[in-house]
Predict the 3D structure of the following.
Amino acid sequence: MGIRRGAAWGSLGLLGLGLFLPAPASGPRIGTDDRARELVRTLDPGYRPWAGVLWSPPTKSVETSLFAAQASMGMGLLVGSILLMRRRGGLRP
Amino acid sequence: MHIAEGFLPWPHAVGWTVAAAPWWVVGARKLKDALKDHPWKRLELGSAGGFTFLVSALKIPSVAGSSSHPTGIALGATRLGPWEMGLVGTVVLFFQALLLAHGGFTTLGANAFAMAVVGGWTAWWVHRAVGWCGLPRCWGLFLAAFFSDLATYATTSFQLALAFPDPRSGVWGSMLKFLGIFGFTQVPLAVAEGFLTVFVAGVMHHRSRNLQGEIA
């Protein structure tokens, strides 16, 4: 239990710390995927993507909501599975 | 680590898809057999898949004004197996490409190879190696998640560098540039992922041990 509690506090602490790291003065934080795309354009300015996305979220808020929905689905699946394990484990004579 | 749609030249996209395909086929077979022989693994599959869905959706702020996300592949790779997680990780990437326009279908093979295959096998080997050294299990899980995360981003850097070599320093020079983008941001997140994996695995281990005993 001590290890689990330590790990939980450690992960929460580090994730929380990330929120307080200073953002760049020029604007919001940039995702590493976007930075990699910029570097591709720098390394090969003539490259044009040969396929485009079939659909993309129309606004930033929709995108954020979809990411939140994915995280919620994942959380539901994770917690649901662990609760089922707990329930079945509890049935053990 | 999501290479965007169309951002790999098509021969590279095809090549990485071909490289990832055997892992999907063997992973599907192994998963089917495992679920048939060990029904309790369904819950492990649910929790491992859920964990990957959850943490790969979290865009977390990191150093240098950037943000990135963990992969969440190590938990499943150490509990279900690297073959099985090769398939589960690909399903997660598929949904992200379909619903979030994050990654892409043309780059699914490359992204799956980096995250689900290299990330999964790295986690599995590190976990085993730590076990052989006789270190505590939580250390194995922590290091498995840490190195799995970093290996994923190193592979993505290699894939991009291979496709877009630096005009002066070539593939390795380009790889260093991509590693400079991913590596600096990813190290704190890999540490956080390590802690989170130890915590969730601790909860799962306790519950599934009871469950195995019940079914046996």
Q: What stands out?
A: The first strand of chain A starts at residue 30 and ends at 31. Strands of chain A lie at 30-31. Chain A is about 65% helix and 0% strand.
